[in-house]
Design goal:
- This protein is about 30% helix and about 35% strand.
- It is an alpha+beta fold.
- The chain has one domain.
- The longest helix is centred in the C-terminal third of the chain and has 15 residues.
- The chain is flat.
């Protein structure tokens, strides 16, 4: 899940909510939407081989 921050950057959050914190994990912050989308595809590739 990618969200745009007030600073103009994009952050990837986990799709599932962490049971301990009741929040989504921060999986990285990127300057462009394209970079964030590329990294999210890489994450999904390694999660589901």
């Amino acid at each position: 899940m990618i969200r745009k921050l007030k600073s103009g950057q994009y952050r990837i959050y986990s799709r599932k909510i962490d049971p301990k914190t009741r929040k989504r994990k921060n999986l990285g912050t990127f300057d462009s939407l394209e970079a964030a989308q590329k990294h999210e595809r890489e994450i999904q590739y390694f999660k589901h081989p």
